[in-house]
From TrEMBL:
Residue window of the full protein shown: 1 to 212 of 461
Sequence similarity: Belongs to the DEAD box helicase family.
Chain positions of motif Q motif: 4-32
Protein name in UniProt: RNA helicase
Domain Helicase ATP-binding: 35-206
Length: 212
């Protein structure tokens, strides 16, 4: 197969330069397949094993879109654990540095009031675990997520169809209908139908071969 490069993917040169600063020079298969589809405004369901670069598969196109239209909370990324929320936040922060990206991590175990203040500053990207974000939505009617352009479910198979369901419903209710939905996980087979049902559109589906 041809060697794929980031410059084939319609990404802005500044994003490619930022990637190079953290040693990311060529896209992984899930990045190569999903980034162009996300930039075409499609909903995407992507699956590939842990360590295959799923975070940048959604972070790079979201950052590219954001620098074209930086207004209000732009993307909401849900993850099942605090650690993942911080790891994803770090990747957004590094790549988004040249555009003064504002992000905010909303996870359990931290002060609700301080988090509420951060949310009120309208960060571009909110990274959250479902429970704590649902608590904020329940306790503050002024929170406004109507400008969200992207909803990402990272580790989507762990977020759907289990004990997060009620919290996820609370969150989905305050999100606008017109948005792009991106689901990423290590496996999708068991939850694929549920994912498609949740998205409600015809998503682009990428599943890495078992050895990738
Ligand atoms: P996953 O979510 O699929 O488990 P991550 O997105 O956390 O994987 O990425 C795992 C590691 O690989 C991270 O340290 C990340 O910086 C690195 N990485 C991501 N994309 C690339 C790439 N294209 N080239 C080299 N390293 C990459
Ligand atoms: Mg991941």
């Amino acid at each position: 197969m041809d060697k794929k490069s980031f410059s084939d993917l319609n990404l802005n040169p500044w994003i490619i330069r930022q990637c190079a600063t953290i040693g990311v020079k060529d896209p992984t298969p899930i990045q190569y397949h999903c980034i162009p589809e996300i930039l075409k405004n499609r909903d995407v369901i992507g699956a590939a094993k842990t360590g295959s670069g799923k975070t940048l598969a959604f972070a790079l196109p979201i950052l590219q879109r954001l620098c074209e239209d930086p207004y209000g909370v732009f993307a909401l990324v849900l993850t099942p654990t605090r650690e993942l929320a911080y790891q994803i936040a770090d990747q957004f922060a590094v790549i988004g540095k040249p555009m003064n990206l504002k992000h905010c991590v909303i996870v359990g175990g931290m002060d609700m009031v301080a988090q509420g203040r951060e949310l009120a500053k309208k960060p571009h990207i909110v990274l959250a675990t479902p429970g704590r974000l649902a608590d904020h939505i329940d306790s503050d009617e002024t929170l406004n997520f109507s400008k969200i352009k992207f909803l990402v479910l990272d580790e989507a198979d762990r977020l759907l169809g289990g004990h997060f369901d009620e919290q996820i419903r609370t969150i989905f209710k305050v999100l606008p209908k017109a948005k792009q939905t991106l689901f990423f996980s290590a496996t999708i087979t068991e939850t694929l139908e549920k994912l498609k049902e949740t998205i409600g559109t015809d998503p682009f589906l990428y599943e890495a071969p078992a050895d990738v």
